[in-house]
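Re: [help] complex structure
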Amino acid sequence: MADGALQVTVALVERVWAIPLRFVQVFGEVMLLLGRAILWGLRPPFRLGLVIQAMEFIGVGSLSIIVLVSIFVGGVFGLQSVESFRMFNADGYVGTAVSLTLTREISPVLTALMVTGRAGSAMATELGSMRITEQIDALSTMAVNPIQYLVVPRLIAATIMVPLLTMVFNIVGMFGAYIFAVIIKNVDPGLFVHNIRWYTDISDLAMGLIKASFFGLALSLIGCYQGYNASGGAKGVGTATMRAVVWSSVAVLSLDFGITDVLITLGL
Amino acid sequence: MTLTATGSSTERQGQPGQPAAAAAARSERFQLQVRGLFKSFGEHEVLRGIDLEVERGKINVIIGGSGAGKSVMMKHLIGLIKLDRGQILVDGEDIVPMSDFELNGIRSKFGMLFQYAALFDSFTVEENVLFPLVEHRRRQLKRAEMREIVRDKLHSLGLFNVEKKYPAELSGGMRKRVGLARAIVLEPEILFYDEPTTGLDPIATKNVDEMIADISERLRITSVVISHDMASTFRIGHRVSMLYKGRIIVSGTPDEILRHPNPDLREFISVSKAVDLLPLSGEHGAP
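Output below.
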């Protein structure tokens, strides 16, 4: 009886212990993939065409969804701020609040989450499908390194395009906030614009764009890792895609905390 | 050719300590040599000390049942999977300790036809066959010249007017031929075939066999064919090896294989009913 209870306890402890172990293992494998991608990325041939193709897919392809989301996010943020700030007769500062929040926090995070849903998941699906149909092995047998051919262009493209999309989010989000705050809620347009220019400076923009670069790298790395290591047929590809979205989202939010802390310490 | 059985192999040479001249002569005859290859996935030991020699310029067929580890072994030969221990010599050069960069260079000697062709599904047939040329010959050849080579390869394999089609629009046999065209477009020295006749009807199977034989003869390529199709094996193979429970248990010419007394081999061949076993030769005794 006591032996049985002991065995159940040991099995339970082993299963619980396996969770952090698995996490550490996957984290190590992701870092190794990054290391190999850097090494292969520095070696010729440099496939500029593939980088541009990936930039087009991640950047241009995500543009419409980013515009759509940012106009509503900016708008609703402006709307909520007007209601709150009017309680203190400070609705002239709505533009400041919106611009600081968007540039430093909301734009990079929401842009990264939108790109994760659209492009990160697509990377995992595409590479996963290539893995299970042996197309990745076929690349290797043709003496084309699959990390150099498939992973490196996606990492470069996402690291460049997510900050650019974040900039679009900032601009369109501010436009949305202006429409709702100034045109619908009658905030003074002069004060709205003046306070943005007065309180928002280049360091606020820089903080958001630096974070966005890291988010782009993280989401593409996780998407590629999950797809590259997919196994188990169609179900395996589905699992890889699901994991790519979940873990990229977790990575974006946790990186957001870490990088913000570092950047604030550095004085940004 | 000497008939061998793993464990007491008379052919298994090239061990450490042998004279350099003998080793050179051996790697001249055997382009690919595998020694003591072990591989486990977790608790499951898939390859348990493979010893194999692949004869230069010949069609070397490796037979074995499903799950015997044939495909895993082939992936080791190309360096797609890292082994646990052992040696894989290509032209006398051990590829096991090689880095990714060095391995990439060695792989330019290889071509491979995958079981389901592994064509890039977002590329047309022409783009698929062009791919290795664009990757490796872009400095030497103009695009028009590459297209001409692709057309020639496709025509030589009986594929006409398929250049603009996508893999999904082709039959299984046609996909394999496109895969073969892609594998030979760079004129490799060693061509690997992973179950090339699986899923094909008897006529298509015969056509694929003829293609393999023709390519091997015409291009003087060393061929390594993984198969469990006995009829194909004895139709095209110059040298046959059997993989059983993670080891090569027998190697020899088709005729020697048919006479070999090993009971596992005889059972494997006899149940396929595609070929008739020959009477056992006196030197090997009764099974």
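Residues 31-265 of chain A form one domain.
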